[in-house]
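Annex B.
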Amino acid sequence: MSDLRHSPLHERHLDLGATFTPFGPWTMPLKYDNELAEHRAVRSTAGLFDLSHMGQIRVRGPQAGEFLDHALISTLSSIPVSKAKYSMIVDEDGGILDDLISYRLAEDEFLVVPNAGNTAVVWEKFRERAAEFDVELTDESLGTALIAVQGPRAEQIIADLVAGDDETVVRGMKYYAAAPLTIAGVDVLLARTGYTGEDGYELYLPNAAAEELWDALLNAGSAYDMLPAGLAARDSLRLEAGMPLYGQELGTDITPVEAGMARAFATKEADFVGREALVGREPASAIVGLRGLGRRAAREGAEVFREGEKVGVVTSGQPSPTLGHPIALARLHPEFSAPGLSLEVDIRGKRHPVETVALPFYRRPER
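Aminomethyltransferase: predicted structure tokens.
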């Protein structure tokens, strides 16, 4: 893994005894001690994640909103300043190149966050698609750190590290909103977003300040039994929350229609790349939740059957630490997407019963 990029927090992870794994062009913490303990900490108290492998592309200029309307499947020009929107970028045939979040920082400025393994592709496509627009693009990925605090105590942990009236900003921030703020003396973009199914925040900041802020967050979170958490816990958390992962649920062989995102462009007036392939398209498959009725968990690639006939394939699956039974996401023929259907999955040559369920598998309780 010597040729892989290191996070600006790599030395901190080494000090914490992390086990590392390749993720796109990066090497990132898979776990620190026990991934189940890290998962449960996020569900019960809080977890601290290094997400510095994610990309950051800044879009500035008088036509920034119009450019993103053209480049992505959603309408970005209408979202208010300080708000965020989840969307997708597709190729001309409608295949998903990435799913990403865009934050509107000003009337003429956005921060777009692609996935780690797709940042280079998104950057290339943005540059191609910006040719007819008055915009300036800057790839800030390698100079920006991203730290997340996720879990029911996340708000309190962040609030403990701000001064004066900024506590009101932290506590009053809505989901999918963002604001510049000073946390533990470090200037960040604070966003109430995440990928775990819990409340939480993501903090964007320069690499040079990453260790200082990580230490401050880890120290503040110790009072609430917060644990540093790696990609293994992040994956099990997002699966329980029914959130897709690029490269498993999403890819160029599936369109936003199959991914359940047709609503993003259902009333969109602006032209966008992929419109001709997507508008009016009937889904060829659907992403469906499966609950295992036995103890064995279906894994990625397991075939799904209905009365002996193959009807799809599992894209992600594992035992759910929170729910206590196996769960999976699968691409199935649309007629098998309704909750309550009895199906079977092939696990090492033996068929095991599952049933289709509504997503998400887990929804955080009101607190």
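The radius of gyration is 21 Å. The chain has nine helices and 20 strands. Further annotation is deferred to the next reporting cycle.
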